[in-house]
Amino acid sequence: MVRILVADAMSEEGLAPLLADPTIEVVQKKVVDVEDELDQFDALLVRSATKVTEQLLQKMKNLKIVGRAGVGVDNIDVDAATRYGVVVINAPNGNTISTAEHTFAMMASLVRRIPQAHISVKSREWNRSAFVGVELFGKHLGIIGFGRIGSEVAKRARAFGMHVHVYDPFLTKARAEKIGVDVCTLDELLAQADIITVHTPLTKETKGLLGPKNLAKTKKGVYLINCARGGIIDEQALISFLENGHVAGVALDVFEQEPPGDHPLLSFDNVIVTPHLGASTVEAQVNVATQVAQEVLTFLQGKPVTSSINLPTLSKDVYEKIQAFYTLARKMGIVASQYMSEPVQEIAITYSGSVADLETTFITRSLLAGFLKPRVASTVNEVNAAMIAKERGIAFSEKFSANGNDYNNSITLTVYGENKTFTMKGTHIAHYGDRIVHFNGFAIDFAPEGHLLYIQHHDKPGMIGKVGNILGDHQVNIATMQVGRQEVGGKAIMMLSLDKPLDDTLVETLEQISDIDVVKKLEV
Ligand SMILES: NC(=O)c1ccc[n+]([C@@H]2O[C@H](COP(=O)([O-])OP(=O)(O)OC[C@H]3O[C@@H](n4cnc5c(N)ncnc54)[C@H](O)[C@@H]3O)[C@@H](O)[C@H]2O)c1
Ligand SMILES: O=C(O)CC[C@@H](O)C(=O)O
């Protein structure tokens, strides 16, 4: 039974696919209420309240996936999750419209002083002259961060007759032209905008983006809005610019610390606030919970997820095309790691023929995970394989060749060790399966599966018999046997597939046979 912990409040309607699955147990409790069972969950679903720290990940030893029902993953230690091999996914667009609408509601409220007027009337006052606002029509709106939410805000602003200026260092010209906005530098935006709204993630670069230096470049009387993440507008700087009257008003849905407690910003009459409500609509909550539940279900069924933060994303279509090579690569990694039972410095992978045209990042990660698995104590999978390889000083590279040589497709793996180099080539043949067609310099043809025994020897009559006798004497049945040699009387190999794993003592016995140079058991 798969166990999923839903640690923050989430729409039941959205969670329905998980709740309806008889193979899944969904526990809807806060982390503190399941401290004793944390190591028993396969998946963790959160919104922004639960902090997925390294400490929590350490306790959740069985965890495979964290699903964030929302966009921002700043409450999740993604680096730690990656190290522990835990996939992190989010629901990137389920709350876009709600947040854009909330931003607009905040903008209108800010310039028309609706919250202040509301409080006044509720206090039995009727002071119309105290709440004279300004129109949005004709005003210059600066949008910092022109992704999903920023571009929806722009559409609404244009409908209101505003001039829209956007700053986003990652925005392509073609996309900006398509949407028809004025793309400018940050300095230009700061100088022109009557109202500035931020829609970036909180990163090293965006933390304090609107700090003392940049706030000083804005127009006197500017309005500021943050419905993205607390900290993009530096709160201390904001207080100074409100105190000196430079900033006319601020709308905040988010804070550096949430809840903000008795924050000095809350005492300004021209600061309006909401408690992180951007995504709090019925529709958005159903959307994000549905997206994340569906993705977790897909992942638990062993299929690729499309909104992963720490894995290359794959469409179903692409996944179907790479699936066979993904499996072949994993097996090749496992075999190579056992053959090269020594420290290695580099793994070079060459994709040839039809596989060279596919998305190979995932295939390479699969190969690395297979290679590292017998070598590391911790979980290793596609999420953390590249990172673990790097940590262990193993460089890896990919090369591509349109020419598949004798095969429609092939993966060639070269492992550079301290004392030797090992090469193998594998191919996937439709309706036939995975085959290793070159091994350690020998042409051969075997399936990389089950209990394999590799023997390198001198090409002499009777060698096969000697090996067969010893195995037979020890009740080890040979299922298949492939042989290869470089030249008559030269070096030769046997690859045997056995019906059961071989004892180490039997490996030692085989090593004693004269004219046998190498004996390796390989478990796939
Ligand atoms: N208040 C809420 O409840 C709520 C709801 C949803 C999203 N959000 C937040 O809104 C923000 C935007 O979400 P989104 O879905 O539009 O994300 P997105 O990824 O679609 O867009 C973010 C944009 O910011 C741009 N960007 C990154 N670094 C930048 C920089 N240094 N300067 C300028 N632009 C930069 C990116 O290029 C991207 O286009 C996120 O922080 C998200 O967490 C808040
Ligand atoms: O969970 C929420 O309500 C907030 C979501 C929002 O901050 C996000 O980044 O998607």
UniProtKB/TrEMBL annotation:
InterPro entries associated with the record: ACT-like_dom_sf, ACT_dom, ASB_dom_sf, D-2-hydroxyacid_DH, D-isomer_2_OHA_DH_cat_dom, D-isomer_DH_CS, D-isomer_DH_CS1, D-isomer_DH_NAD-bd
Catalyzed reactions: (2R)-3-phosphoglycerate + NAD(+) = 3-phosphooxypyruvate + NADH + H(+); (R)-2-hydroxyglutarate + NAD(+) = 2-oxoglutarate + NADH + H(+)
EC number, UniProt record: 1.1.1.95
NCBIfam families given in the database record: PGDH (TIGR01327)
Role played: Catalyzes the reversible oxidation of 3-phospho-D-glycerate to 3-phosphonooxypyruvate, the first step of the phosphorylated L-serine biosynthesis pathway. Also catalyzes the reversible oxidation of 2-hydroxyglutarate to 2-oxoglutarate.
Family label: Belongs to the D-isomer specific 2-hydroxyacid dehydrogenase family.
Protein name: D-3-phosphoglycerate dehydrogenase
Organism: Anoxybacillus tengchongensis
